[in-house]
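Margin note from the TA: students keep mixing up input and output lines. Inputs are the sequences; the output is the structure of the whole complex. Example:
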Amino acid sequence: MSLIQVKNITKIFGPTPQKVLPLVKNGMGKEQLLAETGHTLGLHEVSLNIEKGEIFVIMGLSGSGKSTLIRHFNRLIDPTDGQILVDDQDVISLSIKELESFRRKRMSMVFQRFGLLPHRTVLQNVAYGLEIQGIPADQRHEKAEEWIDAVGLTGFSHQYPSQLSGGMQQRVGLARALATDADILLMDEAFSALDPLIRSQMQDQLVELQEKLQKTIVFITHDLDEALRIGDKIAILKDGVLSQVGTPADILTNPADDYVTDFVRDVNRARVLTVETVMQPPELRITHDNMEKALSEMRKRGEDYCYVVENEEYRGVVTKDELVEEIAKPGNTPSLFDYADSGETLEPDSTLEQALPATLEADYPVPVVNEDGHLEGVLCPIEVGTVLTPPDDEADEATIDQRKECDTAKDMPKAS
Amino acid sequence: MDFVLFPDFGRAIRNTTNQFVDFLVINFGDSFEAFSNFILFFLVKLERVLRAADPIIILLLIGALAYASSRKWALSIAMMAAMWFIGTLGLWQQAMQTIAIMLIAVLISIILGIPTGVAAARSDRFRSFINPVLDLMQTIPAFVYLIPAAMLFGLGKMPAILATVIYAAPPLVRLTDLGIREVDGEVVEASRAFGATRWQILRGVQIPLALPAIMQGINQTMMMALAMVVIASMIGARGVGETVLLGLQRNDSGQGLIGGIAIVILAIMFDRITQAAGQRMQAHRKVRS
């Protein structure tokens, strides 16, 4: 069961939203609704499932309804229709008292323009959530100091927000949100107001903190690079309607519609996609140590190289030519396990950018080996080239050609 | 029946108003008197303390107040000199009476004005109701409500306080309303997102951030209260206003002028002290690095 379930949330802005709701349910579009009734359709039947412990990014351009959507999670905005369940509890049906307690305990929020209290020091700002809960001053200040240290603002406790740079102010905002120990963190364009260098520092810091804290984070952004960089899952919102929900790799490799396609065109794919998402199963695995047998298998299958695996553990790669040469030598042929050259390998979670040099240098698809030493797949340079090409209608045929080339590329070692 | 262009509404309004005032005097006279006595109790106490105190102590007190609000010795000394000058005009006792009546009127204005301003900031409907009322309070000539006030409370200080509050409270209401509405929406939203109750948001965020505007309102209220002292003296409130009034009645321009000078000095004094206090309250807005 997902931690947060958003079920068919519709939000209509205007004087009498409930009256025009049936029109929307009968399929009236955004423009028609605005023209005929003067109501704005903010969100239209948005449904999401957010799992515990993931960073869920909601991405869209301005006016797509993303900030409206995130404000439904803690009911800063009430929906016109639909349900939001957190741990199977319906947030929409909470009374004011219950809602206040829900906001104190379960969800905290970080804002685009920080939302800090300008008349309070950093310490008092970070302690604000705890103060609201009625925790005594000495306890809340002690806790606030811990979080000020955690976000790297040690020594700034007694400064006012106006004395800090934008990036530091947002760290205060982050510390304030973390200090309440709420398990769900809502971040509304939290890094959008920061300059690019500071933004990527903050992204790294967030990912780092998340590894320790394992919160559930709902992150709003208009920046696809940011979404791809920190998101475990990404939802793309357009004009109040969900276009696509998926992992970063899904979004990049299988954009659901033209809108998403447009979005992903300019992304630096090499930095986002991991080896895991592109690798192929190896053509030929040899799991015994007999060289002659291996050679005959290779001849039978028409392969020029094979990957040697001993008891699930990757040993290395051997080419047909090497084997022929080795068997021809006088004396006993050595064990294939000892002979195989482990050479260059890749890790499944490294990015294509990191994997690219090794892939281009090798004469054969580079083996991908995980932490436990298991062979997970191989990375073929042509395959990498294919996924790095942005999706384009005209490029479709070219892609097919490239796929064919990947097969022929396997003959390359023989030629060299 | 002939067509009448101007039906006689005037008589109707006049008679109804008079009957209503009579009705109030007859039926609620005691309540008004009790209320009046309650306010007068504080006023008389304050006035007695101010008039009985050694002028040196009052001068030092003003100096200390000016220093506390501005942290500037120059202002402190200038304020003491100004007050001393009122003494040299021979108007010390009258000035004490005026200060007492003005402080009570401003205090009542604050007690009524700030909550009204908060309510106006919260509800557009209440605001659209209160706005014309405030316009009326500021524009209707003071004598119009002094007549019924004198009937209800009798001549003297109480109707003077009432007139001063009616005239001086509106800017405080308006500036409180404006100040709270201008508080950064995202800060208020952040406060809500952390589960703050409406009272916690008001006390912890909206009032503190609106404080510069509210202080401006209190300053304006004081200035307008001082503008009322001459009118207040006409219904028997005494003080420096009476000096001006006597000058008018005796055709004594000189006496009118020294009364006027005393009022201006008091106005400058209250203005500078409250302005300085207001500025120090927004110290957090300046980057001190």
